[in-house]
Amino acid sequence: MNRHSSDSGFRALYIRVSTEAQAEEGFSIQAQSERLAAYCKAMGWDHCQAYIDGGFTGSNLNRPEMQRLIADVEAGKIRSVIVYKLDRLSRSQKDTLFLIEDVFMPKNVDFISLNESIDTSTPYGRAMIGILSAFAQLERENIFIRTRMGMLERVKQGYWPGGGCTPFGYDYDREQGTLIPNTDAVIVRKMYDLYIQGYSAQRIADMLGLRYDRLVTQILSRKSNLGVISYKGEEYKGRHAPIVSQEVFELAMQKMKERSQKARATTKRHHLLTGLVYCGACGAKMRYMQWGQAGYKLRCYSQDPSKPYMHKDACCSAQAVWADQIESVVLSDLFKLSASLDGKPSDGERMLIDPLRELKTRIMQTETKLKRLYHLYAEAADDMLLSAIEENKDTLAMLKREYGAEEKTQVAGKRLQDIRLQVASLAQSWPHLGGMERQAIIRDCVNKIIITGDRVEIFYTFAISKTQTQVA
């Protein structure tokens, strides 16, 4: 006996195809429509309406026609819902039971699945629905696990995971399964060069025709530019060619870290020396302050009652100084230095290159010696040989630590050379730079500035000595 209190409402024919199954035999929209229409004709039902979700996954209910179907059920317009196969309704056990028990049944709407011969108007049909939906859920989870395991194995072998996330500067070769550098790789290399030279991300975006500065930092931070694949929180060596060297990448990341650590001026004026100036009397930082209509002065933070956490000496009596005068002193001294630099490393800096080669040779020699000792020990176990093995293992570990430390030293040396190159041409390029670019270059070149009365001490990042000068 039909459970409907009346014969009002129509039969809803729900049809779904996923992106992967659109072309499969028996699952196309046309095939499902024909079978459902034939069933309704055999049952003598002529008041039917189709709800078709083309290209939607069955793992959730976020489908436009499914949402319309639910709304029509809630409105009492539907008397039964018919599908060709249970997983067309949903592949989630939870969602299937929700639809049948919480949406259809409270409104006395029957559910019929032709393939499984299920009809919830009968007790047997209602019992079977939970069992079959559990198998649909199991199938979905097994597919997911197989797909994920297969993808991980591909990535471990160095193949790109594919999909729609091809990094800028590469094309995805489906036949080879790897990334291929394209013409945009030249732009990526320019990004690194400009960023290391001191240009801001926004300026680089403007120069290279990108939409926003965030895109520049995203591209610079991608390990794929090194020939590395990042997948599920792990990194694997890829088969694709790198766009930049490890050295260039590390220099850019070091510069990015330095910029994030140093507080940036957020005002429109972009104060040139913000965060670099210190009071010589108490050691606190000095900040820019609007001084009427005349301009800005640099004043000790210890004299600012609104920032007690910045105080070094509440009784500090250091006088505020005109900011433009200090900026003029710093720039004059920096331009004077730039005229004396040729951008070449000093003799001391050139020496940084030789130790790596020597350490690598010693590591190779020690490894060869260890192999020989292991071979001898395998032939005739001897305590002296075992002692020699342990001693050489310790030596090898020490040499590898020294090698890693020397690599970092060389990166620092290259960074020093880049700053020298900036300073060497600073006087010529300065008039053509914007406020943010000027501020960025000053922060690269200057470590800190100490003001004591009319004396200004400038500590540079590229020179061991400091410069002392007087405010005019």
Key phrases:
single chain, 472 residues, alpha/beta, five-stranded mixed sheet, four-stranded mixed sheet, 15 helices, 48% helix, extended, disordered N terminus
Write the layout of secondary structure elements.
Layout: E1 10-17, H1 29-43, E2 48-54, H2 64-74, E3 78-83, H3 86-89, H4 93-104, E4 110-113, E5 118-119, H5 123-156, E6 170-173, E7 178-181, H6 185-197, H7 201-208, H8 213-220, E8 228-231, E9 234-237, H9 246-261, E10 277-279, E11 286-290, E12 296-300, E13 321-322, H10 323-340, H11 347-350, H12 354-379, H13 383-424, H14 426-429, H15 435-445, E14 446-452, E15 455-460, E16 466-470
Report what the structure shows.
With 472 residues, the protein is of the alpha/beta class. 48% of the residues lie in helices and 16% in strands. The protein has helices at 29-43, 64-74, 86-89, 93-104, 123-156, 185-197, 201-208, 213-220, 246-261, 323-340, 347-350, 354-379, 383-424, 426-429, 435-445; strands at 10-17, 48-54, 78-83, 110-113, 118-119, 170-173, 178-181, 228-231, 234-237, 277-279, 286-290, 296-300, 321-322, 446-452, 455-460, 466-470. α4 (93-104) packs antiparallel against α5 (123-156), α6 packs across α9 and α12 (354-379) packs antiparallel against α13. The longest helix has 42 residues, at 383-424. The radius of gyration is 36 Å and the shape is extended.
